[in-house]
Amino acid sequence: MSEEKKVVKKAVEKAEKVADPVAATIDPASQQMIRRAQELKIDTCFDRAVKMKPCNIGATGICCKNCGMGPCRLTLPKDYDEATDIQTRKGICGASANTVAARNFIRMIAGGAAAHSDHGRCVAEVFLSAARKETDAYQIKDTRKLLEIAPALDVATTVEVDGKQVDRDIDEIALEVGEKAIEEWGKPHGELLYAKRAPKARYELWKKLGVVPRNIDREIVEIMHRTHIGVDQDYKNLMKQGTRAAIADGWGGSMLATDLQDVLFGTPYPLTSEANLGVLREDHVNLVIHGHEPILSEMIVVVAQRPEIVEYAKSKGAKGIQLSGICCTANEILQRHGVPLCGTFLQQELAIITGAVDAMVVDIQCIFQNVANVANCFHTKLITTHPIARMEQDNVVHIEFDEHHALEDAEKIVRLAIDNFQNRRSEVMIPKQKSPIVAGFGVESVEYHLGGTFRGSYYTLNDNIINGRIRGIGGVVGCNNARTRHNEGHIQVVKELIKNDVIVLTTGCNAIACAMEGLLTPESAKVYCGPGLAEVCETVGIPPVLHVGSCVDNSRILLAATEVVKAGGLGNDISDVPVAGSAPEWMSEKAISIGHYFVVSGVYTVFGVNLPVTGAPKFQRYLFEEFEKMYGGMWDLEVDPIAHAQKMIAHIDKKRKALGIDKARERVLMDMADRQRLEA
Please, are residues 580 and 606 in contact by the beta-carbon 8 Å criterion? Predict the structure, then answer.
């Protein structure tokens, strides 16, 4: 065979290679849609993952492309010798593998912190616009939450009049909160105000180590400067700046985004809904909202419920309007309105392949460019809405969203979806799978459910951890990754944790995966939990897996951990608490920033799939071992989901032992005299 024919044959084989649906995902609905896509000759991320292999050198973190002399690929030799590594593995400029890996790692932190914090900035700008009464679409809905966060921004809630403290006007407080919040992104002096929301011991540790952020933007910009060729060449010093930026994200931009969204749109409380592709309805206009910012989606929910808009949909032959969500916009509109979850990050193409989606409206982050190509195979209108997130394909409609005309823009989008209902040109195939869920938990609702109206406190949670019914807390979060079986890592990790009496707090696509699996209902506790956690869930009436929001809402987990510390009995800092973090199927730079701000907040954090540090063993050991000595938290990597969960459980047990609660307390029957002595 000639060389030319060999090349053609190889190209044909590559083009025909497709994913095995069962090997690609554990979800039957997704398997059905992957098969349909392949029958229609439509490629999806699952097929592309089979055809395109990752770069082995880049995956280990030791490929540097930060200047025009590279890329420099510092492969890890089989006869690796740490003693001579810095002399033998060098880029053209002489950068060592440790320097290259650290630069790449903190650039990922910068990218993730920028994404989350820019989301927060956008929310703060809308918040300030609402506080100034520049828009009728947005108002301050949760004044209680406003009054709670105001002191953290150095905003007084009372004022002295005639020697007495009287309440300030809510509008004045809102305006000052908005102004102070905006300043956190770029103030020239001082430090991040929200850093002091961490336990006192944690804040003092950050001060001692010199990692308290100055402002949000500065820490991100400084990473980009330090990682330029010829600047910072000490992996420990590079990670110090990465730590500042991660704290600026978790305890700054992300936390501000969550707080201001709660004040604007209402603090979530538990509600019921459904999850998976089966929430789509053939006889309804299906409008899928995808992305991460709730600024627009809140308005779409409002408009879609208007009687005249519902009647307009009926005039086009539909029975109504079915809203559903993908990714973290899904979690945002779920936790406040009960809008059902259509799917995770990896299901965005599959939703369109049902043939039932009349419009998909997207904002920012985690949106495949290929959804435009898939939409072009069906009648689906794909609508981009954000000035920083457009697509090159001609079939994409761009309706730029402006908070000053929010309701008008939202109505234009909803009417476009309705008008498209009659244009369906393919057979509709909606999978039957969908699961009931309870979602919308947060710091406030956990406190209420565990303590009741008159005794709202984290003491009850702490008491059940101390007495051993609850072994500890697992924060399981993060994306899906097409390099691993969709949802398998998420579900196996979570099931292993709750089987061993670890209560799970979840966000992002892990939360959606758990919803699809039926783990977000109180009834699931009897089926999947150990006896201690099952007893608590049954008594309180909560699921063993608590949906606490979108990926930006990981700050809720940080604040919940802080409340555990404040309630007493489990140490003086987050690093003392029996808690561990996990991202089983991560793929985004945001996940690296999240992981790092959990680590430096004192949480042992395990990632699945891979971590781009394994090509620099000395740097990896710094993150995986030495960080715990400095921060009380550290990174770890475990690909196998069960071993992954068992590592978390082992860490939780280590913390229980350090607190002296590793053995169940002896139950003592008390008579009246004993009780009287206790009361005295």
Answer: yes
Between CA 405 and CA 422 the distance in angstroms is: 28
Considering 216, 242, 265, which residue would you say is the last residue of a domain?
Answer: 265
Number of domains into which the chain is organized: 3
- Listed in sequence order, the residues at least 6 apart from 523 whose beta carbon sits closer than 8 Å to its beta carbon are none
Distance between CA atoms of residues 61 and 376, nearest Å: 37
Do 227 and 147 share a structural domain?
yes
Angle between helices 307-315 and 294-304 (to 10 degrees): 70
Residue 616 and residue 100 in contact, taking contact as beta carbons nearer than 8 Å: yes
The pLDDT of residue 670 is above 90? no
Supply the range of the domain harboring residue 348.
Answer: 271-423
DSSP for 118-134 reads: HHHHHHHHHHHHHHTT-
Residues 482 and 416 placed together within one structural domain of the fold: no
Q: CA nearest 293: which of 127, 416, 120, 441?
A: 120
Q: What confidence tier does 10 reach under pLDDT thresholds 50, 70, 90?
A: low
Whether 66 is covered by a domain: the verdict is no
Q: What is the CATH number of the domain that holds 196?
A: 1.20.1270.30
* Res 674: pLDDT: 57
Residue 366, by phi and psi: left (phi above 0), alpha (psi -120 to 50) or beta? left
Start-to-end CA distance of the chain, whole Å, equals 95
Beta strands in 174-309 (DSSP E): 271-275, 285-291
- For residue 358, give the nearest of 277, 275, 434, 282 by alpha carbon: 282
CA 392 to each of CA 112, 155, 388, 674: distance values in angstroms, whole numbers, following the listed order: 24, 45, 13, 76
Nearest to 127 by CA among 170, 192, 179: 179
pTM of the model: 0.93
Give the range with max mean pLDDT: 13-22, 80-89, 646-655. 646-655
Give the mean pLDDT of 394-417.
95
User: Is 575:565 a contact under the CB 8 Å cutoff?
Assistant: no
CATH number at residue 605: 3.40.50.2030
Percent pLDDT > 70 in the chain is: 94
Looking at the structure, do residues 414 and 530 belong to the same domain, yes or no? Answer: no
Once rounded to an integer, what is the mean pLDDT over residues 182-196?
A: 97
Q: Describe the chain by its helix, strand, coil percentages, rounded to 5.
A: 55, 10, 35
Q: Judge whether 244 lies within some domain.
A: yes
